[in-house]
Design a protein that fits this description.
This protein is an alpha+beta fold. It folds into three domains: 111 residues, Tetratricopeptide repeat domain (Serine Threonine Protein Phosphatase 5, Tetratricopeptide repeat, Alpha Horseshoe); 72 residues, Carboxypeptidase-like, regulatory domain (Immunoglobulin-like, Sandwich); 79 residues. It contains nine helices and seven strands; from the N terminus they run H-H-H-H-H-H-E-E-E-E-E-E-E-H-H-H. The strands form two sheets. A four-stranded antiparallel β-sheet has the order 3-2-5-6, with no helix packed on it. Strands 4-1-7 form a three-stranded mixed β-sheet. A hairpin with a 2-residue loop joins strand 2 and strand 3. The radius of gyration is 47 Å and the shape is elongated. The two termini are 75 Å apart. About 11% of the residues have low confidence.
Length: 309
């Protein structure tokens, strides 16, 4: 764990939007901190890293601060900085190694008969007291003897928190709580809040342009009632005409067959002609009957479809 996250400086520079002047100053502090660390000037290096974090926060800087604190034999402070690092960089690839360093620090603290209580609130800035003694604002860490402590948190506009926390002999304790917002009193509600200061122009949030709402498509127009079922009536008329024509041709074919039977003397030519006419008319009648049936079926289907749509 005796390393410094100096290689991360490029990614850190572009990770979070900030004013150009702040970015330039943060870069200068960070690079100066790296140089001081390499020169074994731990306390000055830590001050430079903390100055860089104030201008352009990124969790990786907590790792560098933790390294400086370890070199200065500040175990509780290093433990706090390692915890801040893991909280702000949850995807850290060296998480297991950092946890190992935390356990080593906890072991040294246990040998001294103390441990560390770390308290985080959302939002931060709550006043913390332990056993009635004011300790400061969250987030903070306190070095305590193992045991039970009455913890109290107070923040304007939020419900107070009171909790009994246990601190073991062998490990530090992280206490996290999301504060519950409470409704303002009638007097406070009657007093208008001061207008918030506008952020610098280059930091003002910009919402993406809103697309014009898309008007819903109009419902499909229905044909006028007089024109609806037009195809149905055409199909019905076709069926009726075909059936009538088929009946006429069928009747005519039957007449030809009766005339053929009534021939008094065999006349081969006349019989052949009448037989051919009767057969032709019978075929045409069958075709017209088929057309009539198909048209009737089509008309029925069209009627149902048009009635639904």
């Amino acid at each position: 764990m005796k390393r410094l996250a100096a290689a991360f400086v490029l990614a850190w520079i572009v990770a979070i939007p900030a004013r150009a002047a702040d970015v330039a100053e943060a870069k200068a502090h960070f690079r100066k901190g790296v140089a001081l660390y390499e020169g074994r000037r731990w306390r000055e290096a830590m001050a430079e890293f903390e100055a860089a974090y104030r201008l352009k926060p990124h969790g990786t800087i907590h790792f560098n601060v933790a390294q400086c604190r370890e070199r200065l034999d500040d175990g509780p402070g290093a433990l706090r900085s390692y915890e801040d690092y893991l909280r702000e960089v949850p995807e850290a690839s060296d998480r297991a190694a950092v946890r190992g360093a935390v356990r080593r620090i906890e072991g040294r603290l246990a040998s001294a008969g103390v441990q560390v209580l770390l308290v985080y609130t959302d939002p931060p800035g709550a006043s913390l007291s332990l056993d009635g003694q004011e300790r400061g604002k969250t987030p903070l860490h306190a070095v305590l003897a193992p045991g039970s402590y009455a913890l109290a948190l107070e923040l304007d506009g939020y419900a107070s928190v009171k909790e009994q926390v246990e601190l073991s002999r062998t490990a530090s304790r992280v206490f996290e709580v999301v504060l519950r917002e409470v409704a303002p009193t009638a007097a406070a509600a009657a007093t208008p809040a001061p207008a918030a200061a506008a952020p610098p122009p280059d930091l003002a949030p910009r919402a993406p342009p809103l697309a014009a709402p898309i008007a819903p498509a109009p419902p499909p127009a229905r044909a006028p009632r007089a024109r609806r079922h037009l195809a149905t009536w055409i199909a019905a008329g076709t069926a009726l005409a075909a059936a009538t024509a088929g009946a006429v041709l069928g009747w005519s074919a039957q007449k030809d067959e009766q005339a053929l039977d009534a021939l008094a003397a065999p006349d081969r030519a006349a019989a052949t002609r009448r037989a051919r006419d009767a057969q032709s008319k019978a075929h045409a009648a069958n075709a017209l009957y088929a057309l009539a049936g198909g048209s009737a079926a089509a008309g029925t289907a069209l009627f149902v479809i048009e009635a639904r749509f």
